[in-house]
């Protein structure tokens, strides 16, 4: 099984793009990954009905490590992290070389804040199978959140060299390029991520920020609009759309978009600042 896709947006805010001043306005950029990791959680995979059917499979064959790994993934998608850990533990006990289960358990450990345990599991997964792209991507995100940018970049690079079709590798490498001001490379990576995961909002939002940094306002605006279309609850995309309106002098629309961003995330400072700047336009 592939690494479970259970990253929540709130768990991904640790890699915010530093605000850049463009035309006197702060670039509203808080990048989320997509941590797979930027796809929406498939709640159906963790539904009571699905868990019950998977449990029935385990009852019929309690010595099958794959069955525990699958159910653990379903528990993870449903947010039942302790139950997921227990199943991954069992899968590994039954098959100590089950590298997918190590990688899956590492992701759950990350959610629970057990970073050292997560790193140990990713390392073990890679030790067993040095060509397992999901483990490199997961470990890269762990390094990235810890500020170990070079190691994170190397892991994403390794996954890409392995010809991964996982959009996370390109998206996350793009975030690193972006944070270093290498926007042309970032745009290339975000574009590849979009081609691999066209329904994910985050690569569009990320690419829009790099377009904006290069003063390509039209393409930036198009990407922010697409991010909103794909995920209407993406506060960062709403704030970035508002920034374009503000740069164009349309404070009424800017204020409405900033207001929506604040509604979605009352703690998002760029949206709060933007709303403060433009709210007078809609006062009447």
Describe the model.
With 284 residues, the chain is mainly α. The protein has a domain at 9-166: Tetratricopeptide repeat domain (Serine Threonine Protein Phosphatase 5, Tetratricopeptide repeat, Alpha Horseshoe). The chain is 65% helix and 1% strand. It contains 14 helices and two strands, in the order ββαααααααααααααα. A two-stranded antiparallel ribbon has the order 1-2. A hairpin with a 2-residue loop joins strand 1 (21-22) and strand 2 (25-26). It starts with 20 loop residues before the first strand and ends in a 6-residue tail after the last helix.
Describe the structure using short key phrases.
284 residues, mainly alpha, Serine Threonine Protein Phosphatase 5, Tetratricopeptide repeat, two-stranded antiparallel ribbon, 14 helices, elongated
Write a brief caption for the model:
65% of the residues lie in helices and 1% in strands. The protein is mainly α.
